[in-house]
């Protein structure tokens, strides 16, 4: 499926949807899709060929069949507005807002790259190399990671990163980081991600005992919600993660490698009064 980084014309969302449905159901037609949008088949065809624009009344139905909500729906609306406006300055302003909603660029993992997720310290070594300007000193790397790793593990991490192309050798002998963020797919990759997440959550637990309070920020919330609130909080967490990634991309003088873990999960299915129990840092406050 198309993603934010793939397109800059709202009609590409619609074209991708039509092509996908056609592949799934050979009898799927412009008429069938047009009926969903309140358009005749010939008009829809011209829209998908980028010879016409959707009428404004079809926008809600378009976002519904595309299953767009939240930031994705906003992105779609901005692209639509930019496409139909005749004011060049306004178009540039709308496109700038749309581009700001895009996810940071990601590198899709191939099968060989699954080993990246076998141990927490492989991605950590990659981040460390970016931190120290790509200088390869296995002994120093093994000591500086927290908790420390062996020199053999540090070397394996470097070899793995080179193998999958997430770092590359420079003429100077240093290593340069190639992509900023990773994403995975498929059953085996999802299982590998779960293993990796278990490891980093274990590190977060260890940090409570081993990292000074002024060098970490760990907080929890226990709260009761309804389904609507649950969905909204999920959207907020995804947006927060995107903002964190964009802020990190703009960091100019990094001096440490941090691990951020976010977990949002049920601990009870039924409850009485709505409560919030807030724990922040080493201070506990009930509300």
Task: Explain how this protein is built.
The protein has helices at residues 11-24, 30-37, 41-48, 59-65, 70-84, 88-100, 121-131, 138-144, 151-164, 187-210, 227-249, and strands at residues 106-108, 167-169, 175-177, 181-183, 219-223, 276-280, 283-286. By secondary structure, it is mainly α. The protein has 3 domains: 11-100, no CATH class; 108-200, Arc Repressor Mutant, subunit A, CATH 1.10.10; 215-286, no CATH class. The radius of gyration is 24 Å and the shape is elongated.
Summarize this entry quickly:
This protein has 287 residues and is mainly α. The protein is 50% helix and 9% strand.
Q: What is the count of helical runs?
A: 11
Shape: elongated
Distance between the terminal alpha carbons, to the nearest Å? 44 Å
Taking all Cα atoms into account, the compactness measure Rg is 24 Å
CATH class of the largest domain: Mainly Alpha
Spatial ordering of strands, largest sheet = 5-6-7
CATH architecture of the largest domain: Orthogonal Bundle
**Whole-number count of domains:** 3
**Largest beta sheet, briefly?**
3 strands, antiparallel
The CATH topology of the largest domain is given as: Arc Repressor Mutant, subunit A
What is the mean predicted local confidence, pLDDT? 80
Q: What oligomeric assembly is this protein in? A: single chain
Strand content: 5-15%
Order of helices and strands: HHHHHHEHHHEEEHEHEE
Give the proportion of residues in helices: 40-55%
Number of strands: 7
Unreliable residue runs? 272-287
Given the helix and strand composition, which structural class is it? mainly alpha
């Amino acid at each position: 499926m198309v993603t934010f980084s793939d397109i800059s014309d709202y009609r590409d969302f619609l074209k991708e949807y039509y092509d996908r449905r056609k592949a799934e159901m050979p009898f799927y037609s412009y008429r069938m899709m047009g009926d969903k949008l309140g358009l005749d088949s010939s008009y829809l065809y011209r829209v998908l060929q980028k010879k016409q624009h959707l009428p404004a009344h079809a926008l809600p139905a378009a976002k519904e069949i595309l299953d767009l909500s939240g930031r994705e729906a906003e992105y779609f609306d901005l692209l639509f507005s930019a496409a139909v406006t005749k004011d060049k300055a306004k178009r540039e302003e709308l496109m700038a807002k749309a581009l700001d909603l895009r996810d940071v660029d990601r590198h899709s993992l191939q099968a060989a790259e699954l080993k990246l997720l076998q141990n927490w310290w492989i991605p950590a070594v990659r981040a460390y190399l970016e931190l120290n300007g790509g200088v390869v000193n296995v002994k120093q790397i093994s000591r500086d990671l927290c908790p420390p790793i062996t020199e053999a593990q540090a070397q394996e991490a470097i070899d793995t990163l080179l193998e999958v192309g997430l770092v590359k050798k420079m003429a100077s002998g240093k290593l340069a980081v190639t992509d900023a963020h990773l994403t995975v797919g498929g059953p085996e990759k999802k299982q590998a991600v779960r293993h990796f997440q278990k490891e980093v959550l274990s590190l977060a637990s260890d940090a409570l005992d081993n990292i000074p309070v002024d060098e970490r920020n760990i907080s929890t919330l226990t709260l009761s919600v309804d389904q609507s609130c649950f969905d909204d909080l999920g959207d907020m967490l995804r947006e927060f993660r995107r903002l964190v990634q964009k802020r990190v991309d703009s960091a100019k003088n990094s001096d440490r490698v941090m691990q951020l873990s976010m977990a949002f999960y049920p601990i009870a299915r039924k409850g009485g009064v709505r409560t919030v129990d807030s724990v922040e840092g080493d201070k506990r406050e009930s509300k």
